[in-house]
Design brief:
Helix content is 14%, strand content 41%. The chain is mainly beta. The chain has a single domain (6-138), classed as Nucleoside Triphosphate Pyrophosphohydrolase. Strands 1, 4, 5, 6 and 7 form a 5-stranded mixed β-sheet that branches. A 3-stranded antiparallel β-sheet has the order 3-2-8, with no helix packed on it. The radius of gyration is 15 Å and the shape is globular. The termini are far apart.
Length: 143
């Protein structure tokens, strides 16, 4: 007998952060419960909480995950709608992406679901195994 998975909906936001050297910040996920995402590369971001705007959520998530302060410059493209299969449910996401400029702060790991954070050159994007959703936004800024 096939068990129907629960369907959950969530709105999320990610930020492509550029520093003064033209590098972007990438994060390696550590999420064994989501095989599609585990050990893949991504950019900072997360869930938009009730009552938050996408911009407020992104600033909060970036600070929590990285310890950095950024300025949001513009939204990149249109939102996308990935579906993630979790162990016991399907997660339908509406995902926004913003282009940001690093302002200040010291880089630190601030989330147990992030294994690594590093600055990379835009020309190095192809050398990393990114989540498909993140890659679609990164394609908008590739040199």
């Amino acid at each position: 007998m096939k068990i129907q998975k629960q369907i959950m909906k969530r709105t999320g936001v990610i930020g492509i952060i550029e520093n003064e050297r033209g590098e972007i910040l990438v994060s390696q996920r550590f999420d064994p419960k989501v095989p599609k995402a585990h050990l893949k590369w991504d950019v900072p971001g997360g869930k938009i909480e009730k009552g938050e705007s996408s911009r407020e959520a992104l600033l909060r998530e970036i600070t929590e995950e990285t310890g950095l302060e950024v300025k949001i410059l513009k939204r990149l493209g249109k939102p996308i709608f990935p579906i993630w299969e979790l162990e016991d449910s399907l997660l339908h996401i509406k995902l926004y992406c913003y282009y940001c400029r690093f302002l200040n702060g010291e880089l630190k790991l601030g989330d147990h679901r992030i294994k690594d954070l590093k600055w990379i050159k835009k020309s190095e994007i192809a050398n990393f195994d990114f989540l498909e959703t993140t890659e679609s936004f990164l394609n908008l800024i590739k040199p």
